[in-house]
């Protein structure tokens, strides 16, 4: 049976492609990491890594087990957190999964509220930008492409916010004084990308553009809302983003609403209705609704 240290070594080498880099990350010697990999492969009876140049990469077999390794390490981390909570006499624990813009806008106030309302409950925040999965956190704040997505019947869901996309333009831009803009009206200008991968935020924008017959072409790539907005402030182009993604607007940037039918992302809070701490979950989701409502009114 593989132990946690072996699995940590496996994951770190897979991520870095180097025993030496993994050792530095884990605070071990390279020989210790190599020994852990050897024990893991011997225990499993499988070859998990192969040479690539001067480094290592996963074999197909190693890639196949990575998801299960992640699950074991996450469970181990939760167990260690639980032990720590018990030592601190914080008997209860509530985990909340969130995406980054929800974290910036809502999580500090939510944790403060829960800390005062339920002082014996430890709140664990889990950043989760990818698609929703069951058994990830007690409460998950997620993005969906539709207002009423088909959640499993055993899941409680609460719509927190309809978050429309807007256009950020330089304040001296010829679009800056428009009351609203359609996707076709902004197509001919240089766009700045503000996302990465194929997450729901990107797909919502791309799908809306496809329906409008707009071809998406990026002049620059920033991969974050903050970086993209600062590039707009330098006059490098325009960027389209959800309104909630604007935490602090840089000087020299103007926000123009998109005309209907504009792309909209929907923010939901989901949870397990049979959770033993249902009272805490109910209060947390109620607080999230209030925070989301404040954001909606502020627009």
Automatic annotation (TrEMBL):
Gene3D superfamilies: Periplasmic binding protein-like II, Winged helix-like DNA-binding domain superfamily/Winged helix DNA-binding domain
The HTH lysR-type domain, residue ranges: 1-59
Record's keyword terms, sorted: DNA-binding, Transcription, Transcription regulation
Alphabetized SUPFAM superfamilies for the sequence: Periplasmic binding protein-like II, Winged helix' DNA-binding domain
Family matches, as InterPro entries: ArsR-like_HTH (IPR011991), LysR_HTH_N (IPR000847), LysR_subst-bd (IPR005119), WH-like_DNA-bd_sf (IPR036388), WH_DNA-bd_sf (IPR036390)
One Gene Ontology MF term: DNA-binding transcription factor activity
Gene Ontology terms: cellular component: protein-DNA complex
UniProt KW Transcription regulation keyword: yes
TM spans (from-to): none
Similarity section: Belongs to the LysR transcriptional regulatory family.
Stated name of the protein: DNA-binding transcriptional regulator, LysR family
Species of the source: Brevibacterium sandarakinum
Lineage, highest ranks first: Bacteria, Bacillati, Actinomycetota, Actinomycetes, Micrococcales
């Amino acid at each position: 049976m593989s132990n946690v240290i072996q699995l940590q070594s496996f994951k770190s080498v897979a991520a870095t492609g180097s025993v030496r880099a993994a050792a530095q990350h884990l605070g071990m010697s390279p020989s210790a990491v190599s020994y852990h990999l050897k024990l893991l492969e011997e225990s499993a009876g499988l070859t998990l890594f192969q040479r690539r140049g001067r480094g290592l990469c996963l074999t197909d077999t190693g890639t196949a087990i990575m998801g299960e390794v992640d699950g074991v390490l996450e469970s181990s981390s939760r167990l260690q957190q639980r032990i720590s909570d018990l030592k601190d006499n914080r008997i209860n624990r509530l985990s909340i999964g969130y995406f980054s813009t929800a974290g910036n806008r809502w999580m500090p106030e939510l944790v403060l509220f829960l800390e005062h309302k339920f002082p014996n409950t430890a709140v664990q925040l889990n950043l989760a930008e990818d698609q929703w999965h069951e058994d990830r956190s007690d409460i998950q704040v997620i993005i969906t492409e539709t207002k009423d997505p088909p959640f499993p019947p055993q899941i409680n869901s609460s719509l927190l916010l309809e978050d429309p996309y807007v256009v950020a333009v330089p304040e001296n831009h010829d679009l800056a004084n428009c009351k609203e803009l359609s996707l076709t009206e902004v197509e001919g200008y240089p766009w700045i990308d503000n996302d990465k991968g194929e997450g729901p935020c990107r797909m919502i924008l791309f799908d809306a553009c496809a329906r409008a017959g707009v071809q998406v072409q990026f002049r620059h790539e920033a991969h974050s809302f903050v970086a993209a907005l600062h590039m707009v402030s330098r006059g490098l182009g325009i960027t389209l983003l959800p309104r909630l993604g604007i935490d602090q607007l840089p000087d020299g940037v103007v926000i123009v609403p998109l005309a209907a039918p504009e792309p909209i992302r929907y923010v939901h809070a989901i949870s397990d209705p049979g959770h033993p701490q249902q009272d805490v979950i109910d209060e947390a989701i109620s607080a999230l609704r209030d925070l989301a409502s404040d954001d909606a009114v502020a627009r």
